[in-house]
Amino acid sequence: MVRVDGSVSYAEAHTSPLWKDGEIVGALVFLHDITERKREHELMAQSDKLRAVGELAAGVAHNLNNSLTVIQGRAQLLLRNAADESSAKSLQIITNAVEDGTKTLRRILNSPAAIPAVNLRRLSWATSLPRASTLPGRSGRASPGRARSK
Fold first, then answer.
1. Which of 66, 68, 50, 67 shows the shortest CA–CA distance to 111?
2. What is the CA radius of gyration of the chain?
3. How far does CA 139 lie from the centroid of its chain?
4. pLDDT at 111 over 60
């Protein structure tokens, strides 16, 4: 629906016939504004898409990082045994480029978008765990002459 002010709203409609003297003379229409519910649903869908993109980026970054680690290791081994200055210089360029790539991947992995959202709630041990005295076969006190185990 388009409101008088031009904004769009969404409604759920329920209808019922209007009876008079055994005949239908009209209809009753009940509208319930669901604009907010629809907006929240769209925001959740967008959040899910962003989370999926972040997880994908993290997976790609991990795979690339593994490949770069192999390249770095091989280039360093070759650099140790380089026979001439030209080869050593080229291998040093490769190792520097790999280090730069690794730093970029770390930034991607450490970005908030790459970390999946987790719903956490505070847990109180005092209220979540039963007291020792309420456990079957326990009195809550150590027996005389016996130390409590920790």
1. 50
2. 33
3. 44
4. yes
Exposure string for 104-131, b = 16+ CB within 10 A, e = fewer: ebeebeeeeebeeeeeeeeeeeeeeeee
Distance CA 104, CA 80 (A): 26
What distance in Å separates the CA atoms of residue 1 and residue 7, rounded to the nearest whole number? 8
Q: What is the pLDDT of residue 144?
A: 47
* pLDDT class of 85 with cuts at 50, 70, 90: very high
**Could you give the residue ranges of the DSSP H alpha helices within 9-131?**
35-80, 85-109, 125-128
Token pair belonging to 11: 């409604």
Q: What whole-number distance in Å separates Cα of residue 19 and Cα of residue 25?
A: 6
Please report which helix (H) or strand (E) contains residue 29, including its range: strand 23-33
Question: What pLDDT band is residue 112 in, cutting at 50, 70 and 90?
Answer: low
91 touches 79 (CB < 8 A): yes
**Do 29 and 23 form a contact (C-beta atoms < 8 A)?**
no
Do 94 and 71 form a contact (C-beta atoms < 8 A)?
A: yes
Tens-place pLDDT, residues 118-143 = 444 444 444 444 444 444 554 444 44
